[in-house]
Structures are given as C-alpha cells and as structure tokens.
Amino acid sequence: MECKAALGDTLDDLKEATPGIDYNEGEVFALVDTQKEADIIADAYNAEVVRFDEGVLVMDLSDGITVEEAVSVAADTSINMPVVYPNFIRSTAVYEQVELEDDEVTGDNVAEIADEGEDVELEYPVNSKYSDPYLNGASKSYQWQHNVVGSHYAWKANRTGSGIKVAVVDTGVIKSHEDLSIAGVYDCTDGNLGAYDSVGHGTHCIGIISERANGKGGVGIAPDATIYSVRVLDNSGHGSDAAIIRGLNKAIDLKVDVISISITGVLYNSAFIAVANKATNAGIPIFAAAGNQGGQVNGYPAAIPGIFAVAATDQNGLRASFSNYGSYINYSAPGVRVVSTYNGSSSDYAALSGTSMATPVVAGEAAGSKLTKAQSLGIPVITEDGHCYEKKVNLVAKVVEDFVKRGFQINKP
C-alpha cells in the first residue's frame, strides 16, 4: 500500500509530462527480485518483457494501453495489481563547459606550465608531496575546490581515500586516461552501449574524486580511492530511470563505500525510494546533484529521502546562479569552473560548471577523509531561499555527523 500511495505523486508528474520526450512512450518498469516474479507482472499487464536484470524489469505495453493508464491502475489501491513505474528520462547535471585558455594545462604542456607558474600565497597550505600543476595557485587551471573543502589537511593526515571504494554512476569513463586508475567498469545502459565515455561527463566527475597525484594535471579530493565506473547514460548524456536504478543496484551489489551520481530531472519517481532504502540498509551513502534550474526546484533523485542532495557554490562562496536550492539540500560545494579529466584524449582536461561537479567534491570528501578531523573551514551554506552565508563548518565532520544520524557505521581515525 505504501508503494501505491507514493505512486500517486509520480502519477501527478506523469500527467504533466510529454510522451517520447520526458519518458519512454509505451514502456513501464517494475522492481523485482526473480524471473518468476518478472513473468507474473508482465502477464498481469499483458506486456512484453524487454529486459530483466539488476532487479529492474522493463516492459513494453500492448498497443492501445498508455503509460498513464498502466500507472493509474498500479496506483489504484482498490485494484490488486503490481506496482509499475513510468520510465522518465534524466540527464547529466552539467550546466556549461568553460573554454580553457591557450596557456592553460591541456595534458601536453603540464611540465612547462608547472615551471612557469609562480607560487602564490594561498588561504590553506599545499601539501608539498603533491606537485601536480593544477595545485599551483598561479595556474589558470587551478583546482580551487581543494582550498574550500580543505583537501590539503586531509592529505597531510594521509586521508587520501586508500581502501575506500567509490562508484560513479554516470556516462562511463575513459579508462586509459593518464590521470585515472579505474578498478572496474560496468554498462547498465538501455542500449548496452559499453563502458566507454563518449560524453566526457563521467570521466570529469571521476577525476574530481580521484585524479591521481602523479605530476600530471591535477589531483582528486581522494586520489587513492578505488573507483568503479557504472555507465547508465547514452551518448547524448540522457538515460532512463530504469537504467539509472540498474546502475545504482549494481553499485550497491559491488559493496562500495560511497556512490556519486551527477544525474538529475524534475519529475518525481517513487521507484527511487526503494533503491535509497536499499543503499541506506547496506550502509552506502548516495550523493546526488540537485540540478541546474537556478531556483527552488526539487531535482531527482537528489530530493528523494535517504539520498544526500548537493548544491553548487562559486568562487565567492555564493550559491552558483544555476544551482537549485531548497529544504532538501544537504550539502553545498564548489561547482563553478571545476577543472578535471575529460574524454578528448588520454591526456585531456576540461573546466565544467554544474551541480554535477559539486557532487563528486562532497563524495570525494566522504571517501578521502576516512574521516579526518580537519580544521574548521569557511563552508558556504545555502539556505532554503537560495541565499548563502559562511558558517564555520568542517565539511568532513558534517559528513560524519550526517552519516551517524542516518545510521551509517563510520570508521573514525
């Protein structure tokens, strides 16, 4: 009954959505555990099974039956029909790509830029054992997010993500990139497109978390974390809820410690409640991007209870103009002009903006800290009306506090 009640809200959004654009027309999905259960549900709706894996059954409805009709029947508490969901379409939460200037690091000129850049006084100290060019404050490709969240303190305490497994559910990855080390790649896309990142978004998010400290480009928040790439989006950066939930289930089954998902959409699907509960019960936090409508807008799956929602801030400590806000936001983190690995080549880098970028910053903090007690830092906090104020908050300590409140087990140093 609880599933049916929640499905009513999904149905309300479905009625306002456009078939073929906002959701896959003539297609629904269900969350099931066995092939026998999948067959029973398909028979109940006189539907054809498209695929069943990772706990997700996708079905084509018979001619003449619309998605709205099927979901309406499923939501009706007076009818004993199994719950099915509309297959909404979501996309990456990137706002824009910022062009790198000619003298910025592109992968081929890292040594030259590192030699030319003069050290500048930074608000927080740089750990001397890391000499990657993007950590130099004089570089136009400077990774400013490290100063905001205090990565240098964590690195100094040898909290670099070693032994922590992170899954990035996204567009895949360029596994051969010079600045990345990938433990595993998985394809959960609707079209079995493979794990290669033709978009660049997944590669960028992975780099924000775990670019290696190897003297090339920059460094991730948790450079020694073990990374798993789970591809759920297509070559245009879009994907269905069925694919996204398949990917999240895969990540949970991998028994990772942290999940980062920079995917968003404004349509509510109660199917995400089940996967959020599954992750919570497994002790795995999911960090998700709030979205880039620039208003008090709920982005999903970030706004689902049990998922940690991340908004974006700029270099001035203010809410990024594009970032969504609201009472569901758990964290804010740097999301404007963040430089990281990209997909143009094995030595490609790019600067992107979006709540997509802020999300792996926080996921990296959760992974890389392990969880260290750094000094209190000035972290921008976004209020429900979208304004920012600076509060002396140790982001890592806040992550620990929130985890404990949610019942997660934390291995404190």
Which characteristics define this entry?
single chain; alpha/beta; 27% helix; seven-stranded parallel β-sheet; 413 residues; six-stranded antiparallel β-sheet; elongated; disordered C terminus
Count, helices: 11
How would you state the average pLDDT, rounded?
84
Gyration radius over CA: 21 Å
Number of strands: 18
Describe this structure in words.
It is built from 11 helices and 18 strands. With 413 residues, it is of the alpha/beta class. The strands form 4 sheets. The chain has a 7-stranded parallel β-sheet, sandwiched between helices. The protein is elongated and about 65 Å long. The termini are far apart. The model is unreliable at 105-127, 371-380, 388-394 and 406-413 (pLDDT under 50).
Topology readout:
Layout: H1 2-16, E1 23-31, H2 35-44, E2 48-53, E3 56-60, H3 67-75, E4 85-92, E5 94-98, H4 110-116, H5 145-149, H6 151-156, E6 165-170, E7 182-187, H7 201-210, E8 226-231, E9 238-240, H8 241-253, E10 258-261, E11 263-264, H9 271-281, E12 286-289, E13 308-313, E14 329-334, E15 338-341, E16 349-354, H10 355-369, E17 377-382, E18 388-393, H11 395-405
Parallel strand pairs: 6-8, 6-10, 7-8, 10-12, 12-13, 13-14
Antiparallel strand pairs: 1-3, 1-4, 2-3, 4-9, 4-11, 5-16, 15-16, 17-18
Helix pairs in contact: 1-3, 7-10, 8-9, 10-11
